[in-house]
Amino acid sequence: MYVMADWYLRSPATNPYDSGSYTLWGTTAPSCPGARYICAVLADSNGHGGPVLSPSIQQQIDNALSTQTDQQDVLLRSNN
User: Fold this and answer.
1) Percentage of residues in the chain with pLDDT exceeding 70?
2) Helical ranges in 1-80 per DSSP H
3) CA atoms within 13 A on the CB side of 27
4) Which of 29, 49, 51, 61 has the most Cβ atoms closer than 10 angstroms to its Cβ?
5) What are the CA-CA distances from residue 58 to residues 1, 6, 27 (Å)?
6) What is the pLDDT of residues 25-55, one digit of tens each?
């Protein structure tokens, strides 16, 4: 049985590559205006309240930060 991925919101001024930096938001994307810092990721749960930051998600984080553009599973915001 496949569990649908959820959105996880990153806490301000935290490491976007640390799953402990995120809290569960839900199944709909949060509002993330701007394009400078990681806002949220769409990922499976790690079973401890955070997201699984798979190599694919980590690559999307890299791409989002380098291009300042939202990715399929990663959203940006203007403030850290």
Assistant:
1) 96
2) 55-67
3) 2
4) 51
5) 25, 16, 20
6) 999 999 999 889 999 999 999 999 999 999 9
